[in-house]
Amino acid sequence: MDPQLMMTMFREMMREERKEMMEMFFKHLSSVSGQSSVTKEVTSVPNMMSALSNRIEKFVFDAETDMCFTRWYTRYKEVFVEDAKQLTESARVRLLCEMLDADTFERYQRHVLPKEVTSIGFEETVATLKQLFDVKTSEFTLRYQCLKLEKSETEDYLVYTGRVNEFCERAKIHDLDCDGIKCLLWIFGLKSQREAEIRQRLIAVLDREYKAGRKVSLQELYRECENFLSLKKDSETIAGNVKTVEAAAKEERRRRECWNCCGDHFAQQCKSKPWFCKRCKRTGHKEKFCDIASQKKAAGNGSGGRRSRQNSDNRRNKRTVRSSGKHVRGVKIANATAEVNSTRMYVEARVNQHPVSFLLDTGSDITLLNENVWRNMGSPKLENTSVVVKNASGRFMASYGASLRSRDLEVRAMHM
User: What PANTHER family does this protein's entry cite (predicted)?
Assistant: First the structure.
């Protein structure tokens, strides 16, 4: 074979082999650089979020101090929009939620269920947080507060100037025209308690029209007021009879209030203990009825002999117990007749096959047998009992025991 030809073939083989080696080398170099860039990107995201979170103060919602989400987000908006623009949208949402305190985040998370917090876009998250954690104040209320602004004695003029400027911008005073200022001043002048309903109605009308983008003139506001008064008058006309009946019933209840116990009955029908009045040192009425009772007493002096003697007795009793510091009320009974046997009902029962007549007393806790009846029954065996027996006056009564055997009662009314 020709040596020249062999040399040419050898050179071609070397050139192709070198070309393949260079391609392999560049592929390997590109893969290594790609992995390093990915690793660098992965490691840089947490570092960036950590650095941004250190610059942002946590949001704590407080309606009393007017710390709403809008004010907080306005302060740190550039951090989320400009400084964090290299982050993905999901990472910015995570950063925003991380800056919420525990209670605020829990309320937001419950609101967006069943969605996941990270599956919601950044702008939608901001809008939802504004809806949840902004103080709900109408434009009229803000403008009304502008008219009520006052400078405190300890407030600096520069601070007062900034406060006025902030309130006016929030209330959008620059959007008010001549009619808007007239309507605002018109409603601002309704300060009487009787005009509270009208004021509330007209504020609602202004808020509705402002939200719809419409302007209200002073004459339209006046017509709304007239319509409301007309409807209110018609409603009162329909309910007039009912109000009259209710007023009469209330007057009757007030007139029937007892002087002694404030119950719903006349003082003559009161069964409570006579009240001792600390103003006039007399019994029979409370302090708030003292003037009325004194007038009644002055009018009835001709027939008040017995009452005067009773008051003097009460004063003597009061001097007797002055050392104890307690008021003792005593009532002297000149003549009393107790008709205890007028109509009594008895129950005829058989106890251990022996007829016994019991006095029917629905307020008694136990039934007693005297010793003679017990002996007539054959003196049945009694068991010891720990029941303490008292009579109607509260005194203790001795008992021999109790019989727990069943009894067959046959009820029959008997009159003594």
Answer: CCHC-TYPE DOMAIN-CONTAINING PROTEIN
386 shares a domain with 350: yes
Do residues 300 and 310 make contact, with C-beta atoms less than 8 angstroms apart? no
Q: How many CA atoms lie within 13 A of 117 on its CB side?
A: 18
Is a pLDDT exceeding 70 seen at residue 406?
A: no
- Cβ neighbours of 294 (radius 10 Å): 15
pLDDT tens-digit series, residues 367-383: 777 777 778 777 787 77
Which residues in 17-108 belong to E strands, given as ranges?
none
Answer whether 336's CB lies under 8 Å from 403's CB. Answer: no
- Global confidence as pTM: 0.37
Instruction: Please check whether residue 331 lies inside any domain of the structure.
Output: no
Q: Is residue 263 part of a domain?
A: yes
What angle in degrees, to the nearest 10, is found between the helix axes of 139-147 and 178-188? 70
Q: Which amino acid is at 183?
A: C
Q: Do the domain assignments include residue 337?
A: no
CA–CA separation, 402 and 369 (whole Å): 10
Give residue 68's domain range. Answer: 56-132
Whether the Cβ atoms of residue 85 and residue 48 lie closer than 8 Å to each other: no
